[in-house]
Amino acid sequence: QVQLVESGGGLVQPGGSLKLSCTASGSIGSVNTVGWAWYRRPPGKPREWVASQMHDGHRNYAPSVKGRFAVSRDHRNNTLYLQMNSLEPEDTAVYYCNVIPSLPNWGQGTQVTVSS
Fold first, then answer.
1. Which of 7, 27, 76, 106 has the fewest CB atoms nearer than 10 Å to its CB?
2. In terms of C-beta distances under 8 Å and separation of at least 24 residues, what long-range contacts does 7-11 make, across chains too?
3. Could you give the CA distance from residue 32 to residue 16 in angstroms, rounded to a whole number?
4. CB 100 within 8 A of CB 34
5. Quick one: pLDDT band at residue 29, thresholds 50, 70, 90?
6. Mapped to the 3 state alphabet, what secondary structure does 8-26 carry?
7. C-beta separation of 67 from 75 below 8 A
8. What does the pLDDT look like over 38-86, one tens digit per residue?
9. What values do phi and psi take at 62, rounded to 5?
10. Each residue's pLDDT tens digit, 90-105
């Protein structure tokens, strides 16, 4: 069993910044993965992919966030980050992390609300 914990969400004004964190624990070492990813679920909409951090160093972003968001990995504390800049109301969502390929046991996510 792998436990995924997201944190760092909150209320921010349009144009502001926020940095999300994700940690994983449990039997992650027994799972074959190729990277990590951030997802989000806007109110009333399905979960969607946001960004990926591959184990080979490659990073990928959804067109809607490219140039504004940056994913990174800190191996010192085993934490995945999502730096979110120039936030827009459309970024309002619950944000989740997961390994790639995704495991079925999603975390509780962290709420990001962009509003003036």
1. 76
2. 7/110, 8/110, 9/94, 9/95, 9/109, 9/110, 9/111, 9/112, 9/113, 10/111, 10/112, 10/113, 11/113, 11/115
3. 36
4. yes
5. confident
6. CCEEECCCCCEEEEEEEEE
7. no
8. 999 999 999 999 999 999 999 999 999 999 999 999 888 889 999 999 9
9. -65, 145
10. 999 999 999 999 999 9
